[in-house]
Automatic annotation (TrEMBL):
This is Phosphoglucomutase-1-like. GO terms for biological process: carbohydrate metabolic process. It comes from Sinocyclocheilus anshuiensis. The keyword Metal-binding applies. SUPFAM superfamilies: Phosphoglucomutase, C-terminal domain, Phosphoglucomutase, first 3 domains. Gene3D superfamilies: Alpha-D-Glucose-1,6-Bisphosphate, subunit A, domain 3, Alpha-D-phosphohexomutase, C-terminal domain. Belongs to the phosphohexose mutase family.
């Protein structure tokens, strides 16, 4: 008997504006507010032209956090009712964000829905998120997210096939007959790793990496998946295929609450890995976030590579990666500029925080490598940041140079100078107070008298060269994105940035980035590990 398709009345919610990484709220909001999840999913489908939607293919995956499987069942029911013909889902509903991007591009899907709150905590009391990626494989651009938000403010009905149930655990195709539909609706459960792994095999030299990890003079590694979506990828690619011992991969079973931990790969939350690396037993360490986007790189004895340095080192050694030997390098981009691009005379783009800004440049063939200060790195083979790609890039550099992480880093500083970098995160602060503080700060730095002021810290002097509210004009389509952060730039390349984050489920987060550039060879190695620990402050009063 064909399954019934229903049109149900609903009412709009005023707070479904997607941020830079989709819609994020506390999990209980999606669970307890009637049709809160359904409304947003309907608006995603309604944002796609009906002619494009009919019979199309869509990819769905998530990081395995609490409510993931329940939400996927709803998404499938609504996809069928909204004319989508085929849905591809990772087994058990798990597929890392970079893998979703990869699959969208490979099968030419119309887009994908990713269920993740990235590095935010999971569980019943944690966060949940929904992100829509377009046919390019990248996060929906601002024009699309604005359209989704406008639809969410006026939605009156939603379409759903409530009796449709999918077996998420069995690989293979499932077909469903729907009333008033001439073709069956199909759901395909796939191995979430294989398609992504095939792409990596075409980017990196797996024979060289296997020798590095399991040859006669192999290095010892420790990779922490933090009970997120990256775990199965680490096990299958690094351990089973490249030969690293099984015990070199820890916390690789995805859990709904990430084992009670915080799936954020930094010195504040990945303390167990840091302590393990300090023992000197391992030559290379890395941690990943909940959905596999972000990464943290560590060397022997816990030597920390800050995310700004990480993307710069990959840029400086980019031809250690076979993919770039074949494609060449079109450009670099990041949310803070790097000295490497200037030295190599490769085009550099400074973008706001948010991966979608990189995607536009990649689609136009202008960009090969990019990164953010929030531990995100990636290249143009997909349209998302990719933690495992960054780890394999570093391993390719280690294999080519036969040096330690620390030696590679210190050589880099000698060549390009060093950016002492740190970040302060003020989380769950009052939104109105945060906005008021940013407005007051902008007023202060906009004063003409502010330019040229000199600030002294110890023996070092910092003279203000420029200050503004960063406004980004996309060089591809001319789109202007305003209010992207307050920048104070000093002569010589040091800088301070204040930014209100758009990736939080409650309140606001004020992020403070401090980047002090040093080129004096006698000062490059002072306090090498005293930097870049992201300091997290919760429920702060913004003064």
């Amino acid at each position: 008997i064909p399954l019934q398709v229903l049109t149900l009345p609903t009412s709009p919610y005023p707070d479904q504006r997607p941020g830079t990484n989709g819609l994020r709220k506390k999990t209980h909001v999606f669970q307890s507010e009637k049709y809160y999840l359904h409304n947003f999913i309907q608006c995603i489908f309604s944002s796609i032209d009906l002619r494009d939607r009919q019979g199309s293919t869509m990819v769905v995956g998530g990081d395995g956090r609490y409510f993931n499987s329940t939400a996927i069942q709803v998404i499938v029911q609504m996809a069928a009712a909204n004319g989508v013909g085929h849905v591809v889902i990772g087994q058990n509903g798990i597929m890392s964000t970079p893998a979703v991007s990869c699959v969208i591009r490979k099968i030419k899907a119309i887009g994908g829905i990713i269920l993740t709150a990235s590095h935010n905590p999971g569980g019943p009391d944690g966060d949940f998120g929904i992100k829509f990626n377009t046919a390019s494989g990248g996060p929906a651009p601002e024009a699309v997210t604005n359209k989704i938000f406008q639809l969410s403010r006026t939605i009156e009905e939603l379409a759903i096939c409530p009796e449709l149930r999918v077996d998420l655990g069995t690989i293979g195709k499932q077909s469903f007959d729907l009333e008033n539909k001439f073709k069956p609706f199909t759901v395909e459960i796939v191995d979430p790793v294989e398609s992504y792994a095939n792409s990596l095999r075409n980017i990196f030299d797996f024979a060289v990496l296997k020798e590095l990890l399991s040859g006669d003079n192999h290095i010892q590694i420790c990779l922490d998946a933090r009970h997120g979506a990256t775990g199965p990828y680490v096990k299958k690619i690094l351990c089973e295929e490249l030969g690293s011992p099984a015990n070199s991969a820890i916390n690789c079973v995805p859990l709904e609450d990430f084992g009670g931990g915080h799936p954020d790969p930094n010195l504040t939350y990945a303390t167990d890995l840091v302590e393990t690396m300090k023992s000197g037993q391992y030559d290379f360490g890395a941690a990943f976030d909940g959905d596999g986007e972000r990464n943290m790189i560590l060397g022997k004895h816990g030597f920390f590579v800050n995310p700004s340095d990480s993307v710069a080192v990959i840029a400086a050694n980019i031809f250690c990666i076979p993919y770039f030997q074949h494609t060449g390098v079109r450009g670099f981009a990041r949310s803070m500029p790097t000295k490497v691009a200037r030295a190599t005379k490769i085009q550099l783009y400074e973008t706001p925080a948010g991966w979608r800004y990189f995607g536009s440049l990649m689609d136009a063939g202008r960009l090969s490598l990019c990164g953010e200060e929030s531990f995100g790195t990636g290249s143009d083979y997909i349209r998302e940041k990719d933690g495992l790609w960054a780890v394999l890039a570093w391993m390719s550099i280690l294999a080519a140079r036969r040096q330690s992480v620390e030696d590679i880093m210190t050589d880099h500083w000698r060549t390009y100078g060093r950016n002492y970098y740190t970040r302060f995160d003020y989380e769950e602060v009052d939104l109105d107070a945060a906005v008021e503080m940013m407005l007051d700060l902008e007023l202060m730095i906009s004063d003409r008298a502010f330019i040229g002021q000199v600030f002294t810290v110890g023996e070092k002097k910092y003279q203000v060269e420029a200050a503004d509210n960063f406004e980004y004009s996309d060089p591809v389509d001319g789109t202007i994105s305003r209010n992207q952060g307050l920048r104070i730039v000093f002569k010589g390349g040091s800088r301070i940035i204040f930014r209100l984050s758009g990736s939080d489920s409650f309140g606001a987060t004020v992020r403070l980035y401090i980047d002090s550039y040093e080129k004096d060879i006698n000062k490059l190695f002072q306090d090498p590990q005293g930097e870049a620990r992201p300091l997290i402050f919760r429920h702060c009063q913004v003064l």
